[in-house]
Amino acid sequence: MVKKLIINADDLGFSLGVNKAILEASNKGFLSHASLMANTEYFNHAIEEIIPQCKNLKVGVHVNLTCSKALFPTNVVTEKGFLNNTFVSLLFKIKSKKVLESLESEIEMQILKIKNAGIEISHIDGHEHVHIIPSINKIVRKLAKKHRISRIREINEGFFESWKFNGKTASFSNILKLFLLKFLSLFNENSGDTGFYSMLNTCEINGFNLFQFLKNSRKYETVEVMLHPALSDLDSPEYYQTLHPRFVSFFQNSSRKSEFDLCFDERFKEYEIL
Q1: 12-37 pLDDT, tens per residue?
Q2: How confident is the model at residue 195, as a pLDDT?
Q3: Residues 149, 115: contact at Cβ < 8 Å?
Q4: β-pair partners for 60
Q5: φ and ψ at residue 222, rounded to 5 degrees
Q6: pLDDT tens digits, residue range 97-119?
Q7: What is the total count of domains within the chain?
Q8: Closest by Cα among 86, 103, 83 to 95
Q9: Which residues pair with 12 in a beta bridge?
Q10: What's the rounded Cα separation, in Å, for the pair 26 and 31?
């Protein structure tokens, strides 16, 4: 049986370098999906100049609660109107009625902004995986049903199977991330239909590990491959000055270019790209 792949680029709309990388990887490579951030600097550029040129690219919502300006004006999880949260701060934030209402309003406004731009939304996920936090996951599933979004990203990645192929190159932080996300997923309504690759190597995916996994893994017929491609040389120092240092180091990491290059790997021809 030929394995089916969803090859997804996160962070569309985050920077010029991300947008340009997704354009090229979609038109000349094997990239099939991208997750769009509705409240970032290069959202309009993605809508006006990138997506219209990507005839086969399926676009979803990349729920963003950890950077950039909030769309919901009276959002109580902001600092001076900006979503300066982290995954951990959102996880442990007391979920009062006002907080939950702010989260739901913000997420729905992000969905509507993308929808109203003429995008047929194929899926929904979260920047820095915030949609896996159970209280937020419940909101995302409610809104996905309301707006007829058929697929929600799930972290269906078995630790021991993933470790077999990715353990040697897994950072300690990514090991902790996988354990945490798998634990939190126990409290979510998961379909379990689509496998996920890979938290253990997240943001540093390499072709050797990936294709060994795809060749030998038997658990899922369909697997989502999450990538973060970017051509960071196209981003200006002035733009980086507007970002939190953790995002600057993310963009400047050499894995952005290597994950971009991976989008063109001829070995993807052995699989059915959805």
Answers
A1: 999 999 999 999 999 999 999 999 99
A2: 96
A3: no
A4: 35
A5: -120, 135
A6: 999 999 999 999 999 999 999 99
A7: 1
A8: 103
A9: 36
A10: 5
Other beta carbons within 10 angstroms of residue 93's beta carbon come to: 15
In the chain the beta strands, taken as DSSP E runs, fall at 4-12, 33-36, 58-63, 121-126, 151-152, 195-197, 222-227, 272-273
The strand pairing partners of 151, in sequence order, are: 123
On whether the CB atoms of residues 36 and 114 are closer than 8 A, the answer is yes
Tokens describing residue 251: 């963009």
Which among 55, 53, 35 has a CA at the least distance from the CA of 43? 35
- Placement of tokens 């077999």 in the chain: 164
- Domain coverage including residue 182: 4-273
- pLDDT, residue 154, reads 98
Beta carbons within 8 Å of 123's beta carbon, 6+ residues apart: 8, 33, 35, 58, 60, 61, 149, 150, 151, 152, 153
**Which CATH number covers residue 236?**
3.20.20.370
**Average pLDDT rounded to a whole number, residues 80-109:** 97
- The 10s digit of each residue's pLDDT in 223-245 is 999 999 999 999 999 999 999 99
pLDDT of 1 strictly over 80: no
> Measured in whole angstroms, how far is the alpha carbon of residue 193 from the centre of its chain?
18
**From its phi and psi, is residue 63 left (phi > 0), alpha (psi between -120 and 50) or beta?**
beta
